[in-house]
Specification:
The complex is a heterodimer.
Chain A (H helix, E strand, L loop, with lengths): L3 H28 L5 H7 L5 H11 L5 H13 L13 H36 L4 H14 L3 H15 L17 H36 L2 H8 L4 H38 L5 H11 L2 H29 L6
Chain B lengths: L25 H9 L1 H9 L2 H18 L1 H4 L10 H4 L1 E8 L13 E4 L7 E8 L4 E6 L13 E4 L5 E9 L4 E9 L2 E6 L5 E6 L6 E2 L3 E4 L6 E8 L3 E8 L11 E8 L10 E3 L8 E5 L3 E11 L6 E14 L1 E2 L2 E2 L25 E5 L5 E5 L5 E4 L7 E9 L5 E8 L3 E7 L11 E3 L10 E3 L4 E6 L3 E5 L5 E6 L10 E8 L2 E11 L3 E8 L9 E2 L5 E2 L10 H36 L3 H15 L2 H12 L3 H29 L1 H8 L4 H37 L10 H10 L7 H29 L7
Antiparallel strand pairs in B: 1-34, 2-3, 3-4, 4-5, 6-7, 7-8, 8-9, 10-12, 11-12, 12-13, 13-14, 15-16, 16-17, 17-18, 19-20, 21-22, 22-23, 24-25, 25-26, 26-27, 28-29, 29-30, 30-31, 32-33, 33-34, 35-36
Helix pairs in contact in B: 2-13, 3-6, 3-13, 6-7, 6-9, 6-11, 7-9, 8-9, 9-11, 10-11, 11-12, 11-13, 12-13
Classes of the chains: A mainly alpha, B alpha+beta.
Chain lengths: 320, 750
């Protein structure tokens, strides 16, 4: 593809620069908090003196701010996260098992919702004015404006508590006698469905709007006039172009999806990165908070990057 | 407004296929600037837009007229009769004793609180009288009989009622103090058994150690009274196991401390007769512990004598090099109440309150400081501490600051205030009774000087309140004892003397029924949407919450839009470096997982309405900036701008008089979308715990639901706030969509 490699390189550089900027911003924010890690360390009886020394060296408490900054950047970029305050365990151990879980949940939800959303959005725009169109739009509008945790709680109440179809917690429960992957999937179903529903709403709305825009274009009229089959016109010519704004919004919506996932992990007691983050905030566990924040940001940026790649594939104009 | 006569070469038509230029056509702008009426006409054609507008107006009406529309005000709590099963009775105090000051009622039980209540006593120091009302046991309803009046020395001080079973019948004693004389009366309050002349007038009395030792199966009473230099020990030992002494025996001893002054209550810590009975005494310069020597017969183990022993340890008032000042108050020390086995006492602590609103905890055996500095609230002007018995064990601190009273639970082992709900602060008045544990209900009961009685769970969340009947309470509330039916507790008594010189006795039984589902209740109240865990009416909170919702949403969105518009205008108008920098900043903002990062902010800077609005504004401005920038860019290219430049307009004139007004419609448009998002974002922040407790919003209602553990049960509490959030957010969104069609005419064709 013409210009693709240059485009990729551009995007990589851009992502990296953004990462550095964001990390710096995060560093500034942590520095300006009134509660300081060194005070917390001093008060916590659980941490052994050896660990305390290690953490002091790790954070560089007595060094000037520039050196601390360098230390911080070095740590983050080499994935060297130190030891948790609250659990006296290396942070990476805590993250290790959680990252794949969050990725699984979040990734699956995004993929499913976008695939369904693009098809449904394009289809109802094509067949506009029908009952399907109105219903889908109204439903999407309602779900789009719903708080994510609320619909999660309702699902829990109805499907897990009242109907007893699904478990109450979000992850693998060894006490249940079921093949492990299926076990995991069964536990994950409710949060997945909620995430998919919410993402779907936005996608359908956007895809529909974009499609409606495109349908009026001349080339679409031409395609129909020369007798191409309806499906070809709809999907190959129409949807493919309509997808461009959808992919753009995908980039923005990743950010919101991640926030939504963090909240939902809370509601469904899903032991992922988001749940760890919120816990570390309430315990003021700095190493864990910094590390999880970094990981979450990284996930977002990687997601953006991949969306950019897809966009580059779809729209040759960008590569010029 | 500039009128664009003869203006641009383009003359777009409203009919026919729209062209690209229509998006920012002057004709649209003319319509908007010249006629709100015409805007309305265009807007009106969208049904969803009208629906959205109607709903928003509906909420606005709710918010404005909340006090009129709402069935209850937000502080209302369902009364106890709806929340618990309750019976009550009001008894008039005898005519000849009316008008005197009465004590808080005292429940007389056999042995300990864990036995049935058999009488209620009231006493009046200025009348020199005590009234005892017999209570029937074994019944669910209240059955309180007429009182008997007893005469005692005027100004007497009631100390305790001790009850010891014996071989035939039971022995019961009242301990009364009159100046330096301590008298022990039989349970008829007439026969004087013994009198001690202390030789000094006590200023301090210890929390009485009234232990139930499993080995001996009887109560034991240890009491210490002191003035500045003298300490008097009173120890009533029950009959022994082998029947050598069939009656309880009393031992007394006096200790004199001449070098320093005693400044607070001595604390008796009992070691089950076997090891380590001691008394801890705070003095003006240090805190010291003395042994209590229990002399037993080696063969029979019968207690022969109880006396003061040597000093075990002494610590001065220095923590980490800082010297603190202990409060010179009557209720200075306490420790968790523990039954039985001696190893439980290894953990008991003596707690001292200091004048800087802190508490210091000493390990009782060594005097080592276990923890210090449990600052609960800033600016405390007065506080007292008591035992939070039952489970979880801890220390209850009640007190007041300049503006409010509070009660907090502090963990006895670590000194930390248990997480955010184990503190309850009143908006008016202060707590005037100790927090008393009510067995069977597993709750605490206490009262405030504003005549309200509270029933709290172990986390000090309020389960129910009672207005003090008869218009006001004269005394603090007292938990009296339990109702037993076949040795299980089925209910509890509490009582208070009311203004009308009436004794009000009530029973509570059963568990807390809140949150209450929608319906009508015994008090005659109807809760259309039910109540929450603390008895607040949900409909009332929903209506009053509208105010906070609208305020937060609109203000935050407004700030975000202002920032975004300014950034967008500047970036669009000044190309080059400024544009690049601003756009990079915007891009970074958009690619940040903003909510996640700002949770960090909220966690540390604290949840307050202003902080939340700032957070939402920061999250939202970037998207608007982008749009405004592209609008500005294309406006800049428009011919009317060129015309204005030719006509000699200056730069700022260009921006403000020509471009900005044309950008405004987009600003309004995106403001509606931002409000929509702000409402949901606020709900998420509130749900995660970052809501301002003083301004309840719908999101916080859901957070309370989650915390109370009722989220899978109380559907009437779960559904309404969420529906309102969705509805309000959706309505603003629909308004935005409809307005979008006005501003972007090519959308209209669909």
């Amino acid at each position: 593809m013409a210009g693709m490699s240059r485009y990729i390189i551009e995007r990589v550089i851009q992502t990296f620069v953004t990462l550095i900027i964001i990390l710096t911003l995060i560093f500034i924010m942590f520095e300006s908090l009134p509660a300081k890690p060194q005070d917390l360390l001093a008060q916590n009886p659980l941490i052994k003196p050896a660990d305390k020394e290690f953490l002091e060296a790790y954070f560089g408490f007595d060094k000037p701010i520039q050196e601390r900054y360098v230390l911080y950047m070095k740590h983050m970029l080499t994935f060297d996260f130190g030891t948790s305050f609250s659990q006296a365990e290396p942070v990476w151990n805590l993250l290790e098992e959680r990252i794949p879980r969050t990725l699984l949940l979040f990734g699956l939800a995004t993929i499913i919702s976008y695939i369904i959303g693009i098809y449904v959005g394009a289809y109802i725009a094509w067949k506009r004015g029908g009952v399907g169109d109105g219903t889908a739009v109204v439903t999407s509008l309602v779900f789009y404006n719903m708080p994510s945790f609320w619909i999660g709680l309702i699902f829990l109440l109805v499907f897990a508590s009242r109907l007893d179809l699904f478990p109450l917690t979000g992850w693998y429960d060894p006490s249940v006698d079921l093949w492990k992957p299926l076990n995991i999937l069964w536990h994950m179903t409710l949060p997945l469905v909620v995430l998919v529903l919410l993402n779907l709403a936005g996608t359908i709305l956007l895809m529909r709007t974009a499609m409606l825009d495109i349908i009026g274009e001349n080339y679409m009229v031409t395609a129909k006039a020369i007798g191409l089959p309806e499906r070809t016109v709809l999907y190959k010519h129409g949807a493919r172009n309509a997808m461009l704004p959808v992919v753009t919004s995908f980039i923005i919506s990743i950010v919101f999806s991640v926030s939504g996932a963090v909240v939902l992990e809370n509601v469904f007691t899903f032991p992922g990165v988001g749940a760890l983050y919120i816990r570390s905030l309430s315990q003021l566990d700095f190493p864990v908070a910094e590390a999880t924040l970094f990981i979450i940001t990284l996930l977002v940026l990687v997601g953006n990057f991949m969306a950019d790649l897809i966009y580059g594939y779809l729209d040759p104009r960008v590569r010029m | 407004m500039t009128s664009l006569k003869g203006g641009s070469p383009q003359k777009p038509k409203e009919k026919g296929l729209p062209s690209a230029g229509d998006i920012f056509s002057e004709s649209t702008l003319k319509k908007l600037t010249r006629g709100p009426l015409r805007t309305w006409k265009l807007y009106r054609s969208s049904k969803t837009g009208l629906a959205g507008l109607a709903i928003v107006l509906g909420f606005l009406i709710l918010a404005t007229f909340a006090p009129i529309i709402s069935p209850y005000d937000p502080d209302f709590r369902a009364p106890a009769e709806d929340v618990f099963y309750a019976n009550n009775v009001e008894l008039a105090l005898s005519p000849d004793t009316a008008g005197y000051n009465w004590s808080a009622p005292v429940g007389l039980t056999r042995d300990t609180r864990e036995e049935p209540l058999y009488a209620i006593m009231l006493y009046s120091q200025d009348a020199g009288k005590a009234l005892i009302y017999p209570v029937s046991t074994g019944v669910q309803e209240i059955d309180v009989q007429d009182p008997t009046t007893y005469t005692l020395p005027v100004g007497f001080d009631y100390i305790e009622y001790v009850h010891f079973p014996r071989v035939l019948g039971q022995t019961a004693y009242f301990l009364i103090r009159d100046g330096p004389i301590v008298s022990e009366y039989s349970d008829n309050l007439i026969d004087l058994n013994v009198e001690w002349d202390l030789g000094f007038e006590p200023k301090f009395t210890s929390n009485l150690w009234n232990g139930y030792t499993l080995a001996l199966r009887f109560s034991r009473l240890a009491l210490v009274m002191a003035d500045e230099h003298n300490v008097w020990l009173y120890d009533k030992v029950p009959r022994d196991a082998i029947g050598l002494y069939s009656d309880a025996r009393t031992f007394t001893d006096t200790l004199t401390i001449s070098d320093v002054e005693i400044i607070g209550n001595p604390l008796v810590v009992d070691g089950d007769f076997e090891n380590g009975s001691m008394v801890i005494i705070p003095t003006s310069s240090d805190i010291r512990a003395y042994n209590i020597d229990v002399e037993k017969s080696p063969l029979t183990k019968v207690v022969l004598n109880v006396t003061f022993g040597d000093m075990i340890w002494r610590k001065n008032y220095t923590v980490d090099g800082n010297e603190f000042t202990p409060i010179d108050s009557k209720e200075m020390m306490t420790f968790p109440y523990a039954h039985g086995a001696s190893d439980a006492f290894g953990k008991t602590v003596a707690v001292l309150a200091t004048s800087d609103d802190d508490m210091i905890a000493y390990q009782r055996e060594t005097g080592e400081i276990l923890w210090s500095g449990a600052l609960i609230m800033p600016g405390i002007t007065d506080f007292s501490i008591g035992t939070m018995s039952g489970s979880p064990a801890g220390i209850i601190v009640t007190g007041k600051t300049e503006s409010r009273g509070f009660i907090a639970g502090v963990d006895a082992e670590t000194g930390s205030v248990r997480y955010n709900r184990t503190m309850f602060s009143l908006t008016e008045g202060y707590i005037n009774s100790p927090a008393q544990y009510v067995t069977g209900l597993g709750t605490f009961i206490y009262s405030s000087d504003r005549d309200i009685i509270y029933l709290s769970d172990g986390l000090l969340g309020i389960n129910a309140t009672f207005g003090a009947p008869g218009g006001g309470a004269l005394t603090p509330v007292a938990f009296l004892g339990n109702i037993y039916i076949q040795s299980s507790v089925t209910g509890n008594y509490f009582a208070v003397v009311t203004d009308a010189n009436t004794l009000y006795v009530s029973t509570l039984s059963g568990v807390n029924k809140a949150p209450l589902p929608p319906g009508s209740y015994p008090s005659g109240n109807r809760y259309l949407l039910g109540t929450d865990y603390e008895g607040h009416d949900i409909l009332a909170w929903l209506i009053y919450g509208t105010r906070s919702e609208l305020m937060v949403g609109i203000t935050a969105a407004f700030v975000a839009v202002v920032i975004g518009t300014v950034v967008g205008l500047v970036a669009g108008y000044y190309p080059g470096v400024i544009d690049s920098i601003l756009m990079r900043a915007t891009d970074v903002m958009l690619s940040l997982p903003g909510l996640v990062i700002l949770l960090l902010f909220a966690a540390v800077f604290g949840p307050s309405l202003v902080n939340i609005m700032i957070i939402i504004a920061i999250l939202s401005w970037a998207g608007i900036a982008r749009v405004i920038r592209s609008v500005t860019l294309s406006l800049k290219e428009r011919a009317f701008v060129d015309a204005a430049i030719i006509a000699g307009a200056s730069e700022s004139r260009l921006i403000f008089r020509h471009i900005a007004p044309n950008v405004l419609p987009y600003t309004f448009l995106y403001m509606t979308f931002t409000i929509s998002g702000a409402i949901v974002t606020e709900a998420i922040l509130a749900f995660l715990g970052f809501g301002d407790v003083n301004n309840v919003t719908w999101g916080m209602m859901l957070q309370y639901l989650q915390i109370s553990g009722q989220s899978l049960i109380a559907w009437w509490w779960l559904l309404p706030p969420g529906i309102c959030i969705t509805l309000l957010s959706l309505s603003f969104y629909l308004i935005g969509r409809a307005f979008d069609e006005v501003v972007n005419p090519r959308l209209r064709k669909r």
